[in-house]
Structure formats: C-alpha cells, structure tokens
Write a sequence for this structure.
C-alpha cells in the first residue's frame, strides 16, 4: 500500500474484528437439520442435529445473541435463552429445538423469565448428548435489554 496511514487503519480494524464477539441472530441458529435417531439409553428416537456450515463456523467462538431469558428449572439451575417467550417456546411445542440455547453463566444471573437479554459466551455445538441442548453458550455473561 502506498498510504501507510490507510494500511494501519485497515490492519487495526482487521485485528479488532478477530477479537470481537460475533452478533448472531436466530436465523443463524436455524442452519441445522434434524433426523430421528434411535437412542438405546432411553429406548426412543430423538431428533438429532446436523449442523450447517454457517453455524459450524462459530463453534468455539465468542458470540452474542438476543432473546428471552428462561429459567426452566424454576430454581436457578438450568437457564436458556429463547427466540420466543416461555408461553410459545420449544418446550411448549410452539417452536423447534433450534430456537433455544442452553446457557452456562459465569455467575448466576439476576434475570427473570421472559425478560429480553443479550447473552455473550463461547458457542458449543452439541450433536449427540440428548441430556443437553443442541446449542450451549459456555462461560456466559448477560445484559438486560428490557
């Protein structure tokens, strides 16, 4: 490059982009297909995910997502973020498993069910453990939006 200042600016923005969290949308999490597969432990068929290339590209990366906070255990043990409020979430039969993300927070969050939050964490794709969600955010932090 002829202009050293321009080169420096391009380099700084490139480096910043490598370390910034990626803001994902629920459409990104819809990059998955499900097929029934038999599970011998539970003696039943489960819909198991095959993740698409777009969502796979975020595996192990720090990402952000906005959604509805759900405490599905009722006692602060199991947290989800959902594309939908509790009354129309995946567990109520109104949506698919791609609309929820299990969240392992660094510290227990102060949020209440159905508050809109933005959660940041390391994305883990779970293709085979039926006791956990297909999407998991590890080491997560959250921010109340409403």
């Amino acid at each position: 490059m002829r202009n050293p200042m321009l080169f420096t600016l391009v380099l700084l923005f490139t480096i910043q982009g490598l370390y910034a969290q990626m803001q994902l949308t629920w459409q990104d999490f819809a990059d998955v297909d499900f097929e029934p597969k038999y599970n011998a432990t539970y003696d039943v068929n489960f819909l198991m995910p095959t993740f698409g290339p777009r969502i796979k590209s975020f595996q192990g990366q720090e990402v952000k997502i906005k959604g509805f906070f759900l405490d599905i255990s009722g006692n602060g043990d199991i947290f989800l973020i959902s594309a939908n409020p509790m009354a129309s979430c995946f567990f109520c039969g109104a949506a698919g498993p791609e609309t929820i993300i299990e969240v392992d927070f660094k510290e227990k969050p102060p949020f209440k069910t159905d508050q809109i939050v933005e959660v940041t964490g390391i994305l883990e794709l779970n293709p085979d453990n039926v006791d956990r969600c297909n999407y998991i955010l590890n080491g997560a932090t959250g921010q109340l939006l409403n």
Notes: The chain has one domain: 21-144.
